[in-house]
Design brief:
This protein is of the alpha+beta class. 21% of the residues lie in helices and 27% in strands. Strands 7, 8, 9, 10, 13, 14, 15, 16 and 17 form a nine-stranded mixed β-sheet that branches. The chain has a four-stranded antiparallel β-sheet with strand order 3-2-5-6, with no helix packed on it. Helix 1 packs across helix 2. The longest helix is centred in the C-terminal third of the chain and has 10 residues. It is elongated.
Length: 246
């Protein structure tokens, strides 16, 4: 195997997402052949170099695992939390493999969340360039006008950068209506911030679909993805199908 960027190696080995792997490197928690590496551009070869994270030798997973979870509200989408709040990892009791969440749902949101130890799968499914649509339903404090919906679809300026176009559809009218929102891009708290931009607060937010995969679990429950579901994702993500998975 040829040399690769260190964060990609960590991600592929199921340690963390690439973004989190970069943080581990910058924090000085990664060593290559006994030397601490803090430069993000650094490269290594997993087959010939001794790579350690927090003193633990890195090895590629013997097989890859893909899980779906219904994240409930009041749980943090992180592997660990400095404030000692309950994390999504507490809901994966019985999972022996070291997996991590693919993307995130904020503390007050619920819905479909994927987990894996396949770093390339996680990277591709969260990359906006692959256009994997995430579908949400949101209960908000008041209906949007036609002008608001048009702006929602075309994108609005958030923190100096325009959001990618989003699909929006009223699915239950009323004083506190429900909307369906579809996004390929997922900036932090994007749906809540977009509604707030139009003077509406989000009371409830649930992710009900990632790509073709629909939420089919009770809150707090998880299941393994089927081989058929994994293969369908890999076909969409244009991944080579040479990995063992369960």
């Amino acid at each position: 195997m040829s040399e690769e960027r260190l964060q990609k190696i960590l991600s592929r080995a199921g340690i963390a997402s690439r973004r989190k792997a970069e943080q581990l490197i910058v924090e000085g928690r990664v060593t290559v052949n006994g030397k601490s590496v803090t430069e993000l551009g650094s490269k290594a070869d997993l087959e010939t170099d001794h790579i350690k994270v927090d003193g633990r030798l890195l090895r590629e997973p013997s097989h890859y695992v893909y899980l779906a979870l219904h994240k409930p509200k009041g749980v943090v989408t992180t592997v660990s939390d400095p404030e000692h709040r309950e994390t999504v990892m507490h809901l994966l009791r019985g999972v022996k493999e070291r997996v991590y969440p693919v993307g995130r749902l904020d503390y007050h949101s619920e819905g479909l969340l994927l987990f894996t130890n396949d770093g390339e799968f996680a990277h591709r499914i969260t990359s906006p360039s692959n256009h994997v649509i995430k579908t949400y339903v949101a209960k908000v404090t008041g209906a949007l006008t036609e002008e608001h919906e048009k702006a929602f679809r075309e994108g609005i300026s958030l923190h100096g950068r325009k959001t990618a176009p989003a699909e929006i559809k009223l699915i239950k009218p009323g004083t506190n209506p429900w909307y369906e929102v579809k996004l390929a891009e997922g900036r932090q708290n994007q749906i809540r911030v977009m509604f707030k931009h139009f003077g509406r607060l989000v009371e409830k937010l649930r992710r009900v679909k990632i790509g073709f995969l629909e939420l089919d679990l009770a809150p707090g429950r998880y299941r393994m993805l089927t081989t058929k579901e994994v293969d369908r994702f890999k076909k969409i993500l244009k991944m080579d199908d040479g990995k063992k998975h369960s």
